[in-house]
Specification:
Length: about 325
């Protein structure tokens, strides 16, 4: 729809808001609206929360691991209130542990029968882009720490990578929630929300891979130089993917793809050597992370700045 710009005073231009949008968001004269800039696009959002998204669920028969997964999913999907019925202190403990990873979620009431969780803010003042960048850098840091600790045989550090992974989870969960709540994200991101959602989940999976990698490396008898080489290649791939994701060029895409192929070719050769069970699991963790990184590349192939795209209208 088009709206005509009207001069209002010597230096002010005004534009009317669509009546349907006003009614839908219950906007009244005197209300404050959030106005954000995205290149040539203005994003206008009402911060008036007209409804609270809530869920009531009996989780008594769920496996404890699935309880944590369930809680993460309802957070990501944008629920503001969760009333969870349970019959086991173990389940309550799992809820308490997972809530710590969910930015803005707080347990308001709890006992041996139920737990009430509420979002303490309907509009968390955190920056989506910076949170995503920090998730990237934290996941990469996990790989760097794992590689150095493996070389030094620092078992305690390898076993504690899960602590850093909690921060990756917190940031990724927050970004996923922001997409579903349509908060603090630009027009381009909204248009690509389905792809962006998968990208962030891949990043969260990489953090999980690094945690498992640390555990398996900590149980290996001694340093395997082949595995150290694979980790260095994975770090090179991670650096190239990170650089490409935020500055997409053809050269960077080709480099990231080259490193992906090189790493997986070496994995095929190393697989011919005799390895312990935990070494084999470590190789699998590295391969899984490599494929997740590769996915981050192929989702951005249409964002390359050095490729001219001509659009014709039929």
């Amino acid at each position: 729809m088009k709206r005509k710009v009207v001069q209002h005073g010597p230096s002010t231009l005004i534009i009317s808001l669509p009546s349907g949008w006003i009614k839908k968001n219950n906007v009244k004269s005197g209300d404050e609206l959030d106005v954000g800039e995205q290149d040539k696009t203005l994003v206008i959002a009402s911060n008036i929360n007209t409804s609270i998204k809530s869920i009531t669920q009996n989780i008594s028969s769920l496996d404890p691991f699935l309880v944590k997964t369930f809680l993460a999913r309802i957070y990501q999907k944008g629920y503001d209130l969760a009333y969870l019925i349970h019959n086991d202190p173990i389940l309550l403990k799992k809820i308490q542990e997972k809530t710590l990873e969910l930015i803005g979620y707080e347990i308001i009431e709890q006992n041996n029968k139920y737990c009430l969780i509420q979002s303490i803010s309907s509009h968390i003042e955190l920056d989506f882009d910076n949170s995503l960048r920090k998730a990237f850098s934290t996941a990469k840091q996990m790989l760097e720490i794992a590689m150095n600790a493996y070389k030094e045989k620092n078992i305690s550090v390898l076993e504690s990578l899960s602590i850093i992974d909690l921060e990756v989870n917190r940031l990724c969960y927050f970004c996923l929630r922001q997409i579903n709540k349509a908060q603090h994200i630009g027009t381009e991101q909204m248009q690509q929300s389905h792809i962006l959602y998968s990208v962030i989940e891949s990043l969260e999976h990489i953090g999980d891979n690094m945690t498992r990698l640390g555990t398996n490396l900590s149980r290996a008898r001694k340093e395997n130089l082949d595995i150290t080489r694979l980790m260095q290649l994975l770090l090179d791939q991670f650096n190239s993917v990170y650089s490409y994701y935020y500055d997409s060029t053809t050269d960077k895409a080709n480099l990231a793809h080259k490193l992906f192929k090189e790493l997986n070719a070496e994995i095929s050769e190393i697989g011919k050597n005799k390895m312990s069970m935990h070494e084999l699991k470590s190789v699998y963790d590295i391969k899984s992370a490599s494929y997740e990184l590769y996915y981050l590349i192929i989702t951005r192939l249409d964002f390359q700045k050095d490729v001219n795209v001509a659009v014709s209208q039929v």
